[in-house]
Amino acid sequence: MTQHERTTYQGPLSGIKVLDFSRILSGPYASMVLADLGAEIIKVEPVEKGDETRNFPPFIGGMSHYYIALNRCKKSIALDLKSPEGVQIAKDLAAQSDIVLENFRPGVMDRLGLGYETLKAVNEKLIYCSITGFGKNSPHADKPAFDIVAQALSGIMSINCEPGQAPNKLGIPMGDMAGSIFSLFGVLAALHERNVTGHGRHVEIAMLDSLIALQGYLSQIYFVTGESPKPVGTQHPSIVPYGSFPTKDGHVIVACLTERFWHNFARCLGRDDLIEDPRFALYEARLANRDQLEPILHERMTRDSTVYWLDRLTQFDVPNAPILSIGEALEQQHVADHQLVEEVSHLEIGAMKVVRGPIKFDGRGAVPATAPSLLGENTLEVLRDALGYSEEKVDQLRRRAVIGGRTAVKDPI
């Protein structure tokens, strides 16, 4: 793609407008992906402090790393949704939007006067997406939902540890992100349906449901055997050998998902005899005799370095990888070749790096990124351009604290 094509590329969702009431992570991640795909995102934030994540350290130039990570490519409007005028502004914006996204507890948006039925009455084509922790019909419905709570209730934490160790949460906030990811599936499906029927839809996603849906074969192990899978650390519950293996100076990942890869691995180790050994010849035998096989593998691999094994495993066509730190992962050549990191210019901070979305269309990645907005940075722009408000009216609303942020170029907040 040429530089001109890159800077003028609008994305497949160009023209789609999203009114985003969500905050923290489940929701903001989804709206950021929609922005990557070309949608216009208007993020509604509380007047005084904005999205809670604006206050999470560490900071750069006063802006939170957390907020930066989840809120590029969005416009920020600061509204007091407890005031009649603020609610009316939100309704007027919803009337012009294709998608509304929110992640409050069940019933909160209804109490604000911004629930699905209310907004549907002013825009029958509206796709209204609600992300909650547990859904409105759950016995947990009124409990606060955080990623670690959803992980604990999903069963995932119980297997995320080495055998005999304390349960641990996943290193990434998968409960929040799963809710966001499944909400995207629902929203995009509803957009397709609307093209056929002309009507919107209420899309409802629960974080806990999303995590349980992601269990894949782990759920089937329970259904098939009647027993919950046990923790195996980096190993696999039903495939051997698979996981992290010690070397002379570290660890390396080996993943023998098929018999061919197991044969390649045995030959790589110089242990062709293991292929014919009845204890290890087939999947079920290796699984049953894991405790006998793994010491043999460890003893051989700890004789040589990680670099040696990465080279040799590759020569023998055995799936392998080094275990990189976050920094090493971001600096690897793959990331550069795929242009996954982009530098954007922030109004106050200057240059900053952000991670781009991974989806490509005809070789094109996400639309060019813009820096996360200051709180209410786009309030004047949105009210003037979308709703036709004069600067005088905007200033009046600001003086009454109905809105926050910038009211004019000469008047930064």
Q: Keywords, please?
A:
413 residues, alpha/beta, Rossmann fold, formyl-coa transferase, domain 3, 2 domains, 7-stranded mixed β-sheet, 3-stranded antiparallel β-sheet, 20 helices, elongated, CoA-transferase_III_domain, CoA:oxalate CoA-transferase, CoA-Trfase_fam_III, transferase, CoA-Trfase_III_dom3_sf
Question: How would you sum up this structure, described in words?
Answer:
- This protein has a seven-stranded mixed β-sheet with strand order 8-7-6-1-2-5-14, sandwiched between helices.
- Helix 2 packs across helix 9, helix 7 (147-154) packs across helix 10 and helix 9 packs across helix 10.
- A hairpin with a 4-residue loop joins strand 9 and strand 10 (251-255).
- It is elongated and about 85 Å long.
- 41% of the residues lie in helices and 15% in strands.
- With 413 residues, the protein is α/β, with parallel strands linked by helices.
- The protein contains 20 helices and 14 strands.
- 35% of the residues are buried.
- It has two domains: 3-214 and 332-404, Rossmann fold; 242-324, formyl-coa transferase, domain 3, CATH 3.30.1540.
- The model is unreliable at 407-413 (pLDDT under 50).
- It comes from Celeribacter neptunius.
- Keywords: Transferase.
